[in-house]
Design goal:
Elements: H1 2-5, H2 14-27, H3 31-50, H4 61-76, H5 83-90, H6 94-107, E1 117-118, E2 122-123
Antiparallel strand pairs: 1-2
Helix pairs in contact: 2-4, 3-4, 4-6
């Protein structure tokens, strides 16, 4: 599903465009949070691609985008949305968001700051 909605060289599906506009207008996230969320999403896609196990959420770009933005918001903002608020704006049940967040954090070995840092190059 992810490849069908968003692929290099193609326009995103109208449903995805509408979803992104809804999430961004509802949350009013700063650009730094959006960029970090997209970075987390990209990192997660790489982990899933390298893994022999298929992550069911990797097929749903809506869930992946929301989880990436959720983690980015929690990392950068001291006063952030609760998962209940993310559930309301995304229409993803809060139980699912909790499971997705946990799966991503476990996949990143709970070191979401380490993804952005390289010993030789410093911070990206």
């Amino acid at each position: 599903m992810t490849q069908e909605l968003v692929a290099p060289g193609t326009d995103p599906a109208p449903t995805f465009r509408k979803y992104v506009a809804q999430i961004l207008s509802s949350t009013r996230l700063p650009s730094s949070t959006i960029l970090l969320g997209l970075f987390y999403m990209s990192s997660r896609l790489k982990l899933v691609a390298e893994s022999s196990q298929l992550d069911p959420s990797s097929r749903n770009v809506f869930q992946m985008l929301t989880t990436g933005l959720l983690l980015g918001s929690k990392f950068l903002d001291d006063n952030t949305f609760q998962n209940r608020s993310w559930a309301e704006v995304s229409s993803i049940p809060v139980q699912d968001l909790n499971k997705l967040e946990l799966a991503w954090l476990e996949g990143f070995d709970w070191e979401i700051h380490g993804l952005m840092y390289d010993d030789d190059e410093g911070f990206f």
